[in-house]
Amino acid sequence: MPLSLAIVAVGALWWLEGRAPGPRSGRRFWVLAVPLAVVLATAIYYLPYVYGRTPAGPGPWRVETSEGVLEWAPAGPGWNLRVGPRYPSWVELASYGRPPLGLAEKPGPYDLEREGLCAFLDLTGTRLQSEQVGVWRLPTRAEVAASLVRGGELAGCRYREGAARADCVRIPNKEGPLWDPAAPAVYYWTADTAPGDEAWYVPYTGGLRYGGTIAHQPVNWGNPRHGFRCVRRLR
């Protein structure tokens, strides 16, 4: 919004520049100064938020949350796996184990526990097997929300059934151990589905910064922003 308002301000000032009588040097200063001030103020405001992010480690992450003790898969096929320039769609993840084995859009219905990609990860979460292992899985909305972090610690988020956003003690950030700040993914797919061939995803913000951002998207939609991370519940 600040950048959009800056563009509107530029247009308005150029309009005034052409209509107002008298010297134009002062008006030309404001034409440049107002948008530049908005951009600089926005950058300064977000610098600590962006550059203060805790880096992610390549290994698994074990954390005790309100949803139980969870272990998130390490870097590899269960986290930040790419398909060319994008991440797999929910359909590709859900139907991975259906013949022919691999990432492809295969018709439903889908059985995540038996055919999902996460179910084919080995015990270490570092390699995909040709047979179902059944240790890892896609997380639920509640598990992702409970694992959101800020400053390298849990942000105290809790997902309430039927709510459009998570309730958090602190605004979460895109940082480790749950997220990889250097990776393009800002949303994680979940195992939860919605009517109309849709699947739920959770953004790193926990739905606090943008209204209704714990939202659902078409299951066959894969793009550079929607990633995933497999999980297993230890207790």
Task: Write up this protein.
By secondary structure, this protein is α+β, with helices and mostly antiparallel strands. It has a domain at 2-51. The chain has five helices and nine strands. The chain has helices at residues 2-19, 25-51, 90-94, 112-115, 141-147; strands at residues 61-65, 68-72, 149-150, 153-154, 187-194, 198-203, 216-218, 226-227, 231-233. The protein has a four-stranded mixed β-sheet with strand order 7-6-5-8. A hairpin with a 3-residue loop joins strand 5 and strand 6. Helix 1 (2-19) runs antiparallel to helix 2. The chain is elongated, with a radius of gyration of 22 Å.
Helix and strand topology:
Elements: H1 2-19, H2 25-51, E1 61-65, E2 68-72, H3 90-94, H4 112-115, H5 141-147, E3 149-150, E4 153-154, E5 187-194, E6 198-203, E7 216-218, E8 226-227, E9 231-233
Helix pairs in contact: 1-2
